[in-house]
Each structure stands twice: as structure tokens, then as C-alpha cells.
Amino acid sequence: MPDRAPQPVDRQLPTEESRELMALVRDIAQREIAPRAAEEEEAGHFPRELFSLLSEAGLLGLPYDSAHGGGDQPYEVYLQVLEELAAARLTVGLGASVHTLACHGLAGFGTKEQRTEHLPAMLAGGLLGGYCLSEPASGSDAASLRTKAVRDGDDWVITGTKAWITHGGIADFYTVMARTGVEGPRGITAFLVPGDAEGLTAAAPEKKMGMKGSPTAQLHFDGVRVPDARRVGDEGQGFTIALSALDGGRLGIAACAVGVAQAALDAAVAYAGERRQFGRPIADFQGLRFMLADMATQIEAGRSLYLAAARLRDAGRPFSRQAAMAKLFCTDAAMRVTTDAVQVLGGYGYTADFPAERYMREAKVLQIVEGTNQIQRIVIARHLAGPESR
Asked: What is the pTM of this model?
């Protein structure tokens, strides 16, 4: 692979502190993450030591309150950090996004005592989180989840199975949605469950086409006992908490998608500048130049879309529709851009010796996680035309 380093993305950052933060992130990405990414992904190695490094550097709690170990950074900055991490290795960028998602419930809906007790370790204490909403029979229809939590004195006893859990089996804590009442969204409650809780076991990780270094597994809750002090929010408020978290999580996925697409474009541009055919670099040929131009345009459009949604969030304004749009557009764009990157590299793009094929395999999952892109279209349409008739 050509070793010409890509030019850093020209970012519009709000403060000098955020510019220094981004320089730190780029340094970590280039020195610690990218050089080992291909080898470790192929081996299915989860880089827990990198997450410890990110925690020490204050990068796992960026959008949260510094009083509890967070970074006091706006989403506008946090998402661009995710983009840089994902460009170096999606397992790391998406892992940081999922960890942030797992902290959202307690940070946004926990009591003062809960936040004081748990958040410092979650945000800056080296812990890694997971988020448990989906189940084998309830993915897009998350409100139909079957995992139950039954009150027993001052405890809750959780029984059921969660599916497609990023960091399943290795996380130190999980934010778990379980049914405590009636059918539907109003009967769901959120709990903060320790990763080593008795009765909690993980199945073997799923065998995936991409992101092999990021474990995805089912979690089995066999009478897991959780004190009521670890209930997050009110009884029956869990689905509201889940949806609130997913709005931010979708922006995280959008940023990760732009990062993967940017990495693919950088690889394609570098290759096109050095590969020669018919006596000149293939970057001289108009057909290929137009392809690179289209790839770059989609990336810039996606970046602008997720940043616009982030700025709405930072201003305290509604952003659910824009988050769905960003997730939809950015992940579809990543799939197109990475596919085109493979085409630019030709036969080499189809080999594991070059990163384009890995980017293409990784981009696919981003169209599925945090709500499939079909679900995003439903969300957007409801904002435009109202709920569907029954």
C-alpha cells in the first residue's frame, strides 16, 4: 500500500481547547491505533488496552459533565473525535460510541447519588460499557422486548436474553432495558448491571463479515439480581431513556461512517496517485478523477449533515429527525464510497493486502446498527407526515 500520509481533515472547531484535543486524537490514532488495525482485525483481537489509553486521555467521556469525570465537550466536537478514531479503526470508533451510549441513561436520568457513585469510573476510570436493548426476536421492534425484571424486596431479578450486544461478554457494565410492567413501551425500565453479576453469561461472539475485532454476542440473564439503587430513572421510563440514547447514538454511527469513508477515500487517492498505467498515474484519467470527486463530495455532505444535527443538540433544540437523516445519509454514503474505493484499486482492492476491502465490509454494518436505515426512513417520514394510520 502506498505510504503517503493523507492530509488531515480541515475541521472547523469552536475553541482552542478543542483544536488541541483533536491534535491529541490524531496523534493517538496515527501512533497507537492505525498501525495495528489490519493485523488485529484479521486476528479478531479486541484492543482493550487502547480503550484504557483512551480513558486515561479523557476521550471516553467527552460529552459529559466534568464534575463526574467527563470532558465538557459539545457533541460537535465529540462526534469529530469519533470520526478520527473510526478512520483509524472502526472497532475503536464504534466502541467509543457504544460506551458513550451505555453511559447516557445514568448521566441523563440517574439520581445525583447514582451519578456521584458510578459515573467517575464509567467516564474516566478505565471501565467499558455495553448497551442492551435488542433481543433475538425484537430488533427494529424494540418495544416488544421480552426480558423481564421482577421486583423482589429491594432488588430486581432479571431473566431473559439480549442479542447483538457490542462488547458483549467483556464490558464492565451494561445499561439494560427490561420489562417491568405492561406490554409495549410503557412497561420497560432501565437498569445498570455490573458485567460480573452472578447469573449473567455471554454466548460465543458472532462470526461477522467485518469488525472482527469487536465482540458482538448474546447475553443471558438467568435470575440476575440487581438492587433497586441500580434502577435508572422511574419504573416504566426505560423506553424513553432508550430512545433518547439512540438519538445521540445515531449521530455517533453517522460520524463513524464518515470516518470509514474518509479512510477509504484517502487510500484510493494515494493509490491512484502512484499506480501507473499507459505511462501515467491512473489519477490522470478523467473517469477515475470524477469518481474520486464524487466520493469526496459525499463525505463532505455527510460530515456537514451530522455536524448540523450535533449543533442542534448542543443548542438544546430537537434533533431526532436530523439524527435519523444523518445516520441514513452517512452510512449509505460510506457504503458507496468504500465500494468505489475497491473499484479504484481494481484487483488489489479485492485483496486483504490493501485496506479497501476491509472498509467496505465494515461500512455494511453501519447501515444496520442503531436502527436499520429502513427504520431511519420511517422516523424521518413520521416527522414529516405524522404517524401512520392504523
From this structure: 0.96
